[in-house]
């Protein structure tokens, strides 16, 4: 599925579409350069799932936890990860193989730890406030 945005104001509508498309798949991998809009889209996804807390980048803690309406949400940012062992040490499996939504920024850092099935989201910057968002289920 390809979605195009010309403004962040369109993200709430796009987030609902992505959640519907994902159906029972609750692990989402976000690919895109720095500043592409991974965190910004995740914020809208969390709001779409009923989170009322403030969603910010978990860069310094690796994972943030939010409470959605019907599921917990774990938001990872692996950008600062030096080795995959650090993900093992933080107990990533407890999160990935729970019933919660997992939104993962910089999955490139954990190539050997990815689950079998997930939703892949690729964000391409096409202009100052426009993005192409490509979503596929694996
Ligand atoms: N259509 C759009 N969709 C998403 N973000 C947009 C859009 N237009 C402009 N932006 C802006 O782009 C920036 C994206 O920053 P964001 O922190 O979400 O990127 P990121 O991909 O998470 O980067 P990082 O890899 O550093 O974590 C924000 O300032 C946001 O307001
Ligand atoms: Mg980010």
Describe this structure in words.
By secondary structure, the chain is of the alpha/beta class. It has one domain: Rossmann fold. It contains four helices and seven strands; from the N terminus they run βαβαββααβββ. It has helices at 11-22, 38-48, 84-89, 92-96; strands spanning 2-5, 27-31, 63-67, 72-77, 101-105, 119-125, 131-137. It has a seven-stranded mixed beta sheet, with helices on one face. β6 (119-125) and β7 form a beta hairpin. The relative contact order is 0.26. The mean pLDDT is 95. The structure holds adenosine-5'-triphosphate (ATP) and magnesium ion. Magnesium ion binds next to α2.
Q: Approximately how much beta-strand content do the residues carry?
A: 25-35%
Count of individual domains? 1
- How far apart the termini lie comes to 12 Å
Q: What is the second-level CATH architecture?
A: 3-Layer(aba) Sandwich
* CATH topology label: Rossmann fold
Helix content: 10-25%
Name the CATH superfamily assignment.
P-loop containing nucleotide triphosphate hydrolases
| Main sheet makeup | 7 strands, mixed
CATH C-level class is Alpha Beta
Side-by-side strand order of the widest sheet: 1-7-6-2-5-4-3
* Poorly predicted regions: none
Number of helices: 4
What are the distinct ligands in this entry? adenosine-5'-triphosphate, magnesium ion
Q: Mean pLDDT, as a whole number?
A: 95
Report the order of strands and helices.
Answer: EHEHEEHHEEE
Radius of gyration: 14 Å
Number of strands: 7
Structural class: alpha/beta
Give the CA-based shape: globular
């Amino acid at each position: 599925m390809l979605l195009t945005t010309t403004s962040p104001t369109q993200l709430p509508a796009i987030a609902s579409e992505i959640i519907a498309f994902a159906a029972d798949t609750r692990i989402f991998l976000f690919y895109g350069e720095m500043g592409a809009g991974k965190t910004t889209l995740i914020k809208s996804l969390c709001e779409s799932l009923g989170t009322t807390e403030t969603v910010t980048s978990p860069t310094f803690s690796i994972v943030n936890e939010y409470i959605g309406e019907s599921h917990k949400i774990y938001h990872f940012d692996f950008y600062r990860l030096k080795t995959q062992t650090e993900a093992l040490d933080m107990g990533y499996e407890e999160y990935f193989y729970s019933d919660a939504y997992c939104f993962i920024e910089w999955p490139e850092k954990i190539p050997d730890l990815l689950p079998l099935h997930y939703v892949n989201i690729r964000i391409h910057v096409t202009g100052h406030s426009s993005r192409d968002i490509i979503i596929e289920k694996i």
